[in-house]
Design a protein that fits this description.
Strand order of the largest sheet: 3-2-1-4-5-6-7
CATH superfamily of one domain: Formyl transferase, N-terminal domain
Strand content: 15-25%
Distance between the termini: 32 Å
CATH topology of one domain: Rossmann fold
Structural class: alpha/beta
Shape: globular
Number of helices: 6
Number of strands: 7
Order of helices and strands: EHEHEHEHEHEEH
CATH architecture of one domain: 3-Layer(aba) Sandwich
Helix content: 25-40%
Length: 212
């Protein structure tokens, strides 16, 4: 079991890829900006570079692959229940989905009421699911959209639809390429995720998503 400073929240981060948002959280916990400690990093992909980031920071890592569950009936439910059992070993106060590319159902979420938080690169009720940044950019190029943004929200069974904990907006008219938008969005992601997790660790946000 990882050592946690007195008064700090226990944080588990779930990832699937390079882990830049994980790195932002690591930096913020190490600097004291977040009054919490990352006690575990879990990936559904063993190739995720975020695991290397966690190892470099001395954070325990695990891979919980979906592969062994594919052949089972109700495979998603079985995977969710297994993942929940792994996460429970860390006794988390907060579970942060930072680029975790799997949809989690109630077999997972019911184990962690008001504890699972997701980062999504779109504004509330806009572009749920994958490729949100590219879809927003295409809508802008078609003349249908002038802004997009990033949100952090509590996770519910409906995809990208839980109570919102914070947003950042981005004016799309400032940019000429999708690559420029993606770069700006990643900066907003890091800033917003750190801010919201910091607030959650100091009880500045209640479980309805409102600021106290």
């Amino acid at each position: 079991m990882s050592v946690v400073k007195e008064g700090h929240k226990r944080i588990v981060v779930l990832i699937s890829g390079s882990g830049t948002n994980l790195q932002a959280l690591i930096n913020a916990t190490q600097s004291g900006m977040i009054k919490g400690d990352i006690v575990g990093v879990i990936s559904n992909r063993k190739s995720a570079y975020g695991l290397t980031r966690a190892e470099a920071a001395g954070i325990p890592q695990k891979v919980v692959s979906y592969g062994p569950f594919k052949a089972r009936s109700a495979s998603r439910d079985a995977y969710d229940a297994h993942l929940a059992s792994v996460v429970l070993e860390y006794q988390p106060d907060l579970i942060i989905l930072a680029g975790f590319m799997r949809i989690l159902g109630m077999n997972f979420l019911s184990c962690f009421p008001n504890q699972v938080v997701n980062l999504h690169p779109a504004l509330p009720e806009a572009f749920p699911g994958t490729d949100a940044i590219a879809r927003a950019w295409e809508a802008h190029r078609s003349g249908d959209l002038s802004e997009t943004g990033v949100m952090v929200h509590f996770v519910v069974e409906e995809v990208d639809a839980g109570p919102v904990l914070g947003i950042r907006r981005l004016d799309l008219t400032r940019f000429e390429t999708l690559e420029q938008v993606e770069k700006a969005m990643h900066v907003l992601e890091h800033e917003l995720l750190v801010e919201v997790v910091s607030n959650l660790c100091t009880s500045k946000v209640n479980h309805s998503g409102s600021t106290l």
